[in-house]
């Protein structure tokens, strides 16, 4: 029931805020596009060297993380604090954004050991996706907390999500994963890449909204009751 209510409210919030957030989303959108174009260029051209290839690839991933950091903070603050104004063109950086980015990198590092499950014959890749999705969802509540400048850590996020494991897994990992797989399968042609990029960006906004609402239902409501 919680998942359905949050999805319904997320759709309403998406249409409600997208028009007012047009200006603030320009910066994250440009950064995401730059990362996408760099990745596409690397995939279509023979690299001069492995060092150049991997350096450029990781640089593109870093730009993508920066874009997501700005996007998430803008959307979460707008949904939970009704802070529509004050973001300019979405290009800003303070200690909060650094903390958000470092937690993303820390979570990626925590998930690295899960990749060894991929060596299991037959089901390895499925186990990697399942375990990575589960662990990510259990820690994901840390990000709305950081966006709101609240003192939440991975340990606190894990504890808060204990009672809502199925809901956070569905909203933070399962449905976003399904959405990206569908866009990858339907829009694999080179000419459809612009549409795929826009759809992926809108999906990111939608599921950030869903995570913000999930944080409100779990964390902020519990805090008000206590």
Written overview of the protein:
The protein is mainly alpha-helical. The chain has one domain (2-225). It is 74% helix and 0% strand. The chain has nine helices and no strands. The protein has helices at 2-17, 26-44, 50-81, 95-111, 124-139, 142-147, 154-160, 165-186, 193-225. It is globular and about 60 Å long.
The total count of helices amounts to 9
Count of folded domains: 1
| Net shape | globular
Distance between the termini: 23 Å
Number of strands: 0
Order of helices and strands: HHHHHHHHH
Largest sheet: none
Q: Could you say which structural class the secondary elements and strand pairing correspond to?
A: mainly alpha
Q: What is the helix content?
A: over 70%
Strand content: under 5%
**Could you tell me the radius of gyration in angstroms?**
18 Å
Regions with little confidence, pLDDT below 50 for 5+ residues: none
Question: Could you report the average pLDDT, rounded to the nearest whole number?
Answer: 88
In short:
This protein is an all-alpha fold and about 230 residues long. It contains nine helices and no strands. It has helices at about 1-15, 25-45, 50-80, 95-110, 125-140, 140-145, 155-160, 165-185, 195-225.
């Amino acid at each position: 029931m919680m998942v359905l209510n949050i999805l319904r409210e997320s759709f309403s919030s998406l249409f409600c805020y997208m028009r007012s957030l047009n200006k603030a989303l320009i910066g994250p959108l440009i950064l995401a596009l730059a990362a996408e174009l760099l990745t596409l260029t690397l995939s279509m051209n023979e690299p001069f060297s492995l060092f150049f290839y991997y350096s450029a690839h990781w640089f593109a991933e870093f730009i993508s993380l920066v874009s997501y950091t700005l996007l998430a903070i803008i959307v979460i603050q707008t949904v939970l604090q009704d802070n529509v104004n004050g973001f300019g063109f979405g290009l800003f950086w303070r200690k909060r954004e650094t903390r958000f980015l470092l937690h993303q990198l820390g979570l990626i590092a925590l998930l690295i050991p899960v990749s060894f499950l991929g060596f299991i014959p037959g089901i390895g890749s499925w186990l990697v996706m399942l375990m990575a999705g589960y662990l990510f969802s259990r820690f994901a509540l840390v990000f709305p907390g950081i966006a709101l400048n609240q003192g939440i850590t991975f340990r606190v996020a894990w504890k808060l999500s204990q009672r809502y494991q199925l809901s956070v897994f569905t909203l933070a990992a399962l449905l976003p994963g399904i959405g990206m797989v569908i866009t990858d399968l339907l829009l694999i042609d080179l000419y459809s890449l612009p549409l795929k990029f826009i759809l992926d960006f809108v999906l990111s906004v939608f599921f950030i909204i869903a995570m913000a609402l999930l944080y409100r239902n779990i964390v902020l409501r519990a805090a008000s009751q206590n």
